């Protein structure tokens, strides 16, 4: 009911006419000019805001009304509710040339935050960000009046540096650096006092506030951080939390220049370690410049957070906050080390201990990513072998937490950000591709773009064949992951009910059954296993067909054609002759070994057929080298019925490339064997049986078979009479009642036209050989490219020439 009411309101707002909006504005302007605008003014402003915000069209407001909104916004005694509504309307109409707002004279921090946000929403971001930034720094630099708070300015400052970081000068950044040091390091460790709520009994007996506590309930003995807990917080404690929330952005914007000391590159590793300890113990941080002092205090703050993350939280929300703060702390420490290498050795020992503590706890899995990022960035500087960190990350985490959407996205993003390092230096990255594909199988729609970047880096000569099998089995993997999750959550009694001697009746029973255990283990493997045989998955595909209609499996299947296209395009860049031959064999083999999803099979066959064409063009001699396999494939009637697209392209490739022009090893015996096989297939699908309901094959297959036979006959001219005789019978075939009832008139005409063209061409064998098997120079011309089953343009010209005489049309 609520949703229906909301939709009705939105519809009314979108349908509001300009004159209605002007009337509302005039009414609101009158109400806002009263000494104390109340509930009626607020209601009127809400309606205007809804009309302005409910549509993407720019709603025009009266200039006088805009002036009234600006004046009301800046009135000292304007009610907060009215102020918020005025600001929201002004932001919604941005960018606008009607605004005359300025922040130069504003002293009140809350109003400055509101006006600054409106100015930043205007089109001229550079000028607005510069003006707002200057004013914020000016206010922070001075002493705030009683009752004013810097808390309102930090979100605005964060927005300024996001829009235009160069808006602040070095002196201004130093002002903020000094403030942030105080906010981060010197906040009170006593809890705040509860604010009175008003009323007769609103002033309780004065009681001294207690100290803040840690997440485990113990009293905090060190400085305040975002993980220090209290029932109420003081002003400087709120600033401490806000400063930490924008610390990463601030360091990235203003912490990098001049970060390393001048002689840092000349020190040895041992000297660097010693200097870092001296810096930590004997050097007063107050003697450091503001930027370096902030870096030092930020590092201490993050170290304290790492220590606090070791405490056991009493409440779940505090535990979640612990994990989030740990991720942020490690990320900031990594940034500090990139800006000043003297911190690397202090951080290294801290993160080694941290990794050892949390690596076995899956609840902290997301925190392992910034730790791994630190080792990627600094292990060479610190001369540390960190391969064990990456091995644990790539083998355990995807296998056990593939179902976590946030972790999946962050993990794949981590891989994308470090593709160059991983592909050049760490073999575990490519070896773990079966594990990484679990993220894709479970989260297909949201990760497809990321995997478009990832797949080329994972693909290589050593992984190509196994990856092709895995891509074709990706929906099967999604189904297996679903079964794995359900099995893990099954009760003990359900697990005990599995009888190893009985045949499993469901996927869950099969998952625990010894007969299928090795198949599931292979499909759910964590690393590449090139020696294993994918044929073992055939019974598993059949078994997992019961979950084929699961939305997750269907979505996963829809991503496979796109990834297959990318796979073959990438493989074509590095594949050598043996690999191309292997790919073609896998293509033929797997074309009838796919997961039972009809739409999936159609899409995959379409991609496989087009990629077969690509591989044949890359290496035409594969038709001769794989003649045994191609002969077996093209001579099977079932392949026409079940995978017409693939069969059509195989026949086309045979007709096009089974020629001495492409491979000197091609013999007349091979041509004759292919001719006999294709002739038998064409006879099988065009013979007219009395009981037949019609030909089972499409006109396209018939046309391709006729063309391939003609091409082969032109290269072994003893075959010309046989193919000519066959082509002469096509008119009887298309005119037969059984054929006419299945094929349209246009289809029949196309078959007959093709037969006529081919027959006419074969009457001049030397011309037929030139047209059907052109030299490399002729075949390379744009006008002669035989893309699918169509013949070169020269054939049509010869056919027209032959038709000028009589008796050349087959009857």
Number of helices: 44
Low-confidence stretches: 258-283, 781-790, 804-811
What proportion of the residues is helical, as a percent range?
A: 55-70%
Distance between the termini: 74 Å
Could you tell me the number of beta strands?
A: 0
Radius of gyration: 37 Å
Global shape: elongated
On the 0 to 100 scale, the average pLDDT is 84
Biggest β-sheet strands, sense, barrel: none
SS-based class: mainly alpha
Q: What percentage of the residues does DSSP assign to strands (E)?
A: under 5%
Pfam families: SPG48 (PF14764), TPR_AP5Z1 (PF25153), TPR_AP5Z1_C (PF25154)
InterPro entries: AP5Z1, AP5Z1_ARM, ARM-like, TPR_AP5Z1_C, TPR_AP5Z1_N
Domain AP-5 complex subunit zeta-1 C-terminal TPR: 450-800
GO cellular component, one term: AP-5 adaptor complex
């Amino acid at each position: 009911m609520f949703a229906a009411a909301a939709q009705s309101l939105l519809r009314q707002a979108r349908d509001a006419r300009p004159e209605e909006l002007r009337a509302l504005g005039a009414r609101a302007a009158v109400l806002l000019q009263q000494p104390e605008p109340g509930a009626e003014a607020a209601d009127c402003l809400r309606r205007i805001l809804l009309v302005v915000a409910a549509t993407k069209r720019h709603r025009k407001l009266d200039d006088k009304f805009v002036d009234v909104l600006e004046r009301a916004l800046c009135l000292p005694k304007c009610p907060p509710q009215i102020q918020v509504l005025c600001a929201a309307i002004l932001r919604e109409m941005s960018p606008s040339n009607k605004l005359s707002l300025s922040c130069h004279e504003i002293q009140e921090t809350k109003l400055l935050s509101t006006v600054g946000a409106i100015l930043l929403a205007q089109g001229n971001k550079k000028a607005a960000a510069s003006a707002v930034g200057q004013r914020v720094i000016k206010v922070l630099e001075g002493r705030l009046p009683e009752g004013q708070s810097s808390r309102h300015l930090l979100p605005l400052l964060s927005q300024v540096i996001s829009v235009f970081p160069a808006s602040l000068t070095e002196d201004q950044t130093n002002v903020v650096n000094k403030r942030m040091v105080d906010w981060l390091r010197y906040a009170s460790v006593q809890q705040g006092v509860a604010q009175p709520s008003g009323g007769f009994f609103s002033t309780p007996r004065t009681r001294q506030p207690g100290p803040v506590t840690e997440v485990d309930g113990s009293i905090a003995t060190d400085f305040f951080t975002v993980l220090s807990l209290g029932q109420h917080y003081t002003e400087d404690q709120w600033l401490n939390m806000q400063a930490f929330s924008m610390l990463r952005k601030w360091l990235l914007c203003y912490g990098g220049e001049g970060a390393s000391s001048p002689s840092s590159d000349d020190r040895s590793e041992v000297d660097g370690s010693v200097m870092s300890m001296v810096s930590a113990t004997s050097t007063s941080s107050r003697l450091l410049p503001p930027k370096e002092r902030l870096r030092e205090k930020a590092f201490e703050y993050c170290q304290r957070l790492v220590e606090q993350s070791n405490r056991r939280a009493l409440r779940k929300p505090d535990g979640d906050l612990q994990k989030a703060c740990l991720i942020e702390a490690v990320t900031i420490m990594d940034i500090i080390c990139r800006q000043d290498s003297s911190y690397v050795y202090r951080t290294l020992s801290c993160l080694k201990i941290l990794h050892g503590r949390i690596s076995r706890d899956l609840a902290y899995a997301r925190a392992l990513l910034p730790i791994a990022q630190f080792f990627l960035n600094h292990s060479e500087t610190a001369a540390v072998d960190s391969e064990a960190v990456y091995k644990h990350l790539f083998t355990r985490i995807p296998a056990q937490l593939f179902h976590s959407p946030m972790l999946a996205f962050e993990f794949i993003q981590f891989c994308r950000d470090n593709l160059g390092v991983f592909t050049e230096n760490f073999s575990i990255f490519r070896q773990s591709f079966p594990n990484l594909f679990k993220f894709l199988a479970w989260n297909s729609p949201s990760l497809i773009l990321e995997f478009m970047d990832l797949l080329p880096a994972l693909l290589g000569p050593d992984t190509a064949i196994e990856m092709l099998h895995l891509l074709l089995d990706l929906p099967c993997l999604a189904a297996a992951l679903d079964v794995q999750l359900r099995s893990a959550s099954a009760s003990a009694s359900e697990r005990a009910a599995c009888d190893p001697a009985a045949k499993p009746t469901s996927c869950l029973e099969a998952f625990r059954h010894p007969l299928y255990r090795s198949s599931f283990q292979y499909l759910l493997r964590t690393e590449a296993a090139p020696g294993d045989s994918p044929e073992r998955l055939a019974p598993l595909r059949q078994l997992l067909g019961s979950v084929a209609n699961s939305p997750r499996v269907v979505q996963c299947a829809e991503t496979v054609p796109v990834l297959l296209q990318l796979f073959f395009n990438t493989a074509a860049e590095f594949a050598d002759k043996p690999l191309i031959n292997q790919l073609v064999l896998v293509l033929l083999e797997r074309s009838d070994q796919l997961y039972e999803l009809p739409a999936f099979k159609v899409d995959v066959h379409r991609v496989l057929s087009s990629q077969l064409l690509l591989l044949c063009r890359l290496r035409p001699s594969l038709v001769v080298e794989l003649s045994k396999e191609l002969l077996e494939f093209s001579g099977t009637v079932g392949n026409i019925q079940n995978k017409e697209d693939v069969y059509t392209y195989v026949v086309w490739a045979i007709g096009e490339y089974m020629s001495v022009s492409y491979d000197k090893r091609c013999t007349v015996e091979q041509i004759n064997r292919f001719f006999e096989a294709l002739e038998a297939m064409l006879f099988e699908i065009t013979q007219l049986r009395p009981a037949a309901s019609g030909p089972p094959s499409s006109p396209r297959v018939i046309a391709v078979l006729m063309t391939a036979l003609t091409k082969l006959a032109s290269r072994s001219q003893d075959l010309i009479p046989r193919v000519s005789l066959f082509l002469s019978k096509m008119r009887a075939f298309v005119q037969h009642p059984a054929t006419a009832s299945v094929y349209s008139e246009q289809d029949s005409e196309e078959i007959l036209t093709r037969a006529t063209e081919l027959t006419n061409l074969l009457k001049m064998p030397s011309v037929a050989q030139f047209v059907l098997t052109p030299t490399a120079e002729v075949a390379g011309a744009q006008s002669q490219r035989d893309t699918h089953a169509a013949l070169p343009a020269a054939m049509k010209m010869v056919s027209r020439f032959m038709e000028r005489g009589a008796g050349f049309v087959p009857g």
